[in-house]
DNA sequence: TCTCACACCTTTGAAGTGG
DNA sequence: CCACTTCAAAGGTGTGAGA
């Protein structure tokens, strides 16, 4: 595949349809459906397969969360596609945009996500899209290798100049893949809006929807990230439920006699939220660990 | 809710070595 | 020259404390 100079180009999308356009699902023919989620989407003869569908499904079952940081944080899982049905000799540009799913802002309450007001992005005029680092490339090249957007970073910095995707924390988003045939002799420049024209093919996999956060809210998402992301391997521990067992052990050590401590081994589905804080007593200056338990769904 | 420093990890590429 | 190994730097993680 031929690498091009435009590695992490930035595109501004018109706000013609800020929310998830319903026509996308109805127009697309889906096949190879696993559960309720399509693994392959076909539109105008072009097929796109979500390669890491099984991972996305695992995360989606817990409501996927993606961390936003000021300097930009990569997505995990990231969007990885396989394309087919392209014209082998034609040039195509690939973009990934991330758009709001609805008009709500959310909060994590009682171990579930619930709307807490009107979305901030509702008044935002433009959305950014991320150009794939091999874009544009010949159709033949795009079909012989996987198309991964692992370089894409998410940020909550509204003044970001690095080309990261700017999102609002505690809002729901979904990635959209845009496949745009390049007009003969004309390279699609990132500052052109023409790629949203009739030849632009847009693919949306509902299982890639996620909640943007600055700190993980759902313990199960944290555990999935640690288990699947190689960069988080340092937080893995041996044995099943080891992370939760360590927490329970810690709670047992600190809890007073008579406090109800859940038995994680006899009740593997026990709901649990764990919070801890360190403080210092004035008399001894020794650290005192303060731990509280909330019974709600976690494990 | 957000930011930051931190330890721990993977990835990457340069330098060194041997056939 | 090529293949392989070693090593250090760069960068990606979640954690936990503090604002």
UniProtKB/TrEMBL annotation:
InterPro entries: p53-like_TF_DNA-bd_sf, T-box_DNA-bd, T-box_sf, TF_T-box. The keyword Transcription applies. The gene is magl. SUPFAM superfamilies: p53-like transcription factors. GO terms for molecular function: DNA-binding transcription factor activity, RNA polymerase II-specific; RNA polymerase II cis-regulatory region sequence-specific DNA binding. It holds the Pfam family T-box. One of its GO terms (cellular component) is nucleus. It comes from Takifugu rubripes (Japanese pufferfish). Signal peptide: none annotated. This is MAX gene-associated protein-like. Residues 50-237 form the T-box domain. GO terms for biological process: cell fate specification; positive regulation of DNA-templated transcription. Coiled coil: none annotated. Keywords: Developmental protein, DNA-binding, Nucleus, Transcription, Transcription regulation. It is found in: Nucleus.
């Amino acid at each position: 595949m031929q690498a091009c100079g435009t590695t992490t180009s930035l595109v501004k999308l018109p706000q013609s349809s800020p929310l998830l356009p319903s026509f996308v699902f109805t127009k697309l023919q889906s096949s190879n459906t696993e559960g309720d989620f399509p693994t392959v989407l076909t539109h105008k003869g072009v097929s796109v397969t979500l390669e890491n569908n099984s991972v996305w499904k695992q995360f989606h079952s817990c409501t996927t969360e993606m961390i936003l940081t000021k300097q930009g944080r990569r997505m995990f899982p990231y969007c990885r596609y396989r394309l087919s049905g392209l014209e082998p000799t034609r040039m195509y540009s690939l973009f990934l945009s991330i758009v709001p799913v609805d008009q709500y802002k959310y909060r994590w309450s009682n171990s579930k996500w619930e709307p807490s007001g009107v979305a901030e992005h509702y008044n935002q005029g433009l959305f950014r899209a991320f150009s794939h680092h091999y874009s544009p490339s010949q159709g033949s090249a795009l079909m012989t290798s996987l198309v991964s957007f692992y370089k894409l970073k998410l940020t909550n910095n509204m003044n970001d100049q690095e080309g990261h995707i700017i999102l609002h924390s505690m809002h729901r988003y979904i990635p959209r893949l845009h496949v745009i045939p390049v007009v003969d002799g004309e390279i699609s420049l990132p500052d052109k809006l023409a790629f949203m024209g009739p030849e632009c093919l847009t693919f949306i996999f509902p299982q890639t929807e996620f909640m943007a956060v600055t700190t993980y809210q759902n313990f199960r998402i944290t555990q999935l990230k640690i288990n699947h992301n190689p960069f988080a391997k340092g937080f893995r521990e041996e044995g099943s439920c080891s992370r939760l067992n360590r927490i329970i052990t810690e709670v047992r050590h600190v809890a007073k006699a008579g406090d109800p401590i859940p038995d994680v081994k006899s009740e593997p589905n026990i709901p649990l939220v764990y919070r801890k804080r360190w403080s210092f007593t004035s008399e001894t200056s020794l650290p005192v660990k303060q731990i509280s338990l909330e019974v709600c769904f976690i494990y």
